[in-house]
Amino acid sequence: MNSGDWIPRLIERSPESMFRPGKVVLVYGARRVGKTALLRRLLDGRTGSVFFSTGEDADLAGILASRKIETYRLFFQNYDIIAIDEAQYLPEVGRSLKMLVDLFPDTSFLVTGSSSFGLSQTVSEPLTGRSVVHTLYPISLGELLAIEEPLDIYRRFESLLLYGMYPEVFAYPDVAGKVEYLTNLRNSYLYRDILMLERVKNSQKLQEIVTLLALQIGSEVSLNEIATTVGLARNTVERYIDLLEKSFVIKKLPAFSRNLRKEIGKSAKYYFLDTGVRNAVINNFNRLELRNDTGALWENFVVMEMLKAHEARQTGARFWFWRTYEQQEMDLVVESDGAIRGYEIKWNPRKARIPKVWRETYGPGEIITRENLLQILQPLRRSGYPRQDGHRRLTHP
After folding, report:
1. Cβ neighbours of residue 305 closer than 8 Å, sequence gap 6 or more
2. SS3 annotation, 47-109
């Protein structure tokens, strides 16, 4: 087994929805998160003729850049499916895709990109009304629940927190292999799209910002403090952080407020899309009993699993944290289907409680622990594929 790409993804639960004649189905996601493997599985066994290439193909770039109808007809008219992997490298790819959709309305288009800032900015306007967007994250607990027993997953929570959920991490049976993979991922891919596509001038400052964010997961972040620490203007720091979010390194959680006088309304927290990547950034893979950030690591992990679960259901949920000036707080607030739900996230739940102000203002909340996380996620994955027979054990120790 070369990677965890054999793990079925929730986005595959309805393959036909990924092929829509006259539409461009866009799949965004971080590098190495499994987009190429997903694309190949979706294409495997499809009837009809398939065109497949990548955005780094210079010949394809030249053909698309011509913007000539006769050229497009010559190269693409005989295909039922046109699939392009890592399309963010194609100049003005949105205009090219719009022309292709208009020329071939019976053709299905499936396109992936590892940086939403590099691709969405060039496709959103040209493809208005012609595109469907999905985000592919690292493996989710919902996906593991389809192939693994809950108890087996529960026993490996520590490993999942330390080494994360990237598909290839599951290929390594030993800790050394996982750490080496994550270190290489940090060094080779984490900033690649930002540096290449956005021409960020100071990669060292970018890495310093990422490290500072990694050390503050679960805490409110002061951009002024980060700017002072790294020696950059605040607006430059804001731009770098925005690029990090759009390249699927971090996720911003703003403060939730309904304008009550005592509520914090203008702060933000930042979480990493994958805890293994976060640990690689700070070069800390110590066991949990040797760490002082276990609670924050668990909080990061749970926030991302909730986000993945809602993304799989396409609920359009919005995510916040909540705090008052008196330091009463809820780690996660989710607004979905017209309802607001508050969650406290605790690795050690002995002293966990739902603040009185929250209960009186917004209703009961819920405490998420190791013991009930999988139970909470179960209803959020009901629209996914059914549980498979013949459970396959993963290689996490």
Report:
1. 140, 141, 142, 373, 377
2. CCCEEEEECCCHHHHHHHHCCCHHHHHHHHCCCCEEEEECHHHCCCHHHHHHHHHHHCCCCEE
Question: Two tokens at 124?
Answer: 């959103």
CATH 3.40.50.300 residue ranges of the chain are: 10-136
Residues 6+ apart with CB under 8 A from 349: 367, 369
Helices (H), the chain: 35-43, 58-65, 69-76, 93-103, 116-123, 141-145, 150-155, 157-163, 175-188, 192-197, 203-214, 223-230, 234-246, 275-281, 294-313, 356-362, 373-380
Q: Are 206 and 186 in contact (CB under 8 A)?
A: no
What CA–CA distance (Å, rounded) separates 213 from 252? Answer: 11
Q: DSSP letter for 10, please.
A: G
Contact by Cβ (8 Å): 7, 147: yes
CA-CA distances (angstroms) from residue 384 to 7, 15, 273, 397? 14, 12, 21, 27
Question: pTM of the predicted model, to two decimals?
Answer: 0.89
Q: Which of 53, 60, 134, 125 is closest to 95 using CA atoms?
A: 125
Percentages helix, strand, coil for the chain (3-state, rounded to 5) are 45, 15, 40
Q: Which two tokens stand for residue 306?
A: 């909730």
Q: Considering the domain 141-380 in this protein, what is its CATH number? A: 1.10.10.10
The 10s digit of each residue's pLDDT in 24-33 is 999 999 889 9
Helices (H), 314-372: 356-362
What the block records as the tokens of 93 is 């790819």
Token digits of residue 182:
């994550």
**pLDDT averaged over consecutive 10-residue blocks of the chain (397 residues)?**
67 86 91 92 90 96 96 96 92 90 95 72 72 91 91 96 96 95 92 76 89 96 94 93 90 85 76 98 97 97 96 88 90 92 92 90 93 85 43 45
Give 373-392 pLDDT, tens digit per residue.
999 987 654 444 444 444 44
Q: Are 364 and 354 in contact (CB under 8 A)?
A: yes
Assigned superfamily of 10-136: P-loop containing nucleotide triphosphate hydrolases (3.40.50.300)
Q: Name the segment(s) of the chain with CATH classification 1.10.10.10.
A: 141-380
